[in-house]
Amino acid sequence: MDINTLRGLSTILVMIVFIGICLWAYSGSKRKDFEDAANLPFEDEDIEARTLGETEREKND
Questions:
Q1: Which range marks the domain in which residue 29 is found?
Q2: Residue 49, H or E segment
């Protein structure tokens, strides 16, 4: 087995892994998990309170 055969096999292996990850990421069963993860920054209830507090402190300075 020469180096070119090894390179070809590794390319095919990486391509199969890539396709597998794409199928996993776009599968319907993971959609809810990914949507929940995408909305995590917006679920922080303290952000609004901190933002209002900083605005009031800036007005008082």
A1: 3-60
A2: helix 46-60
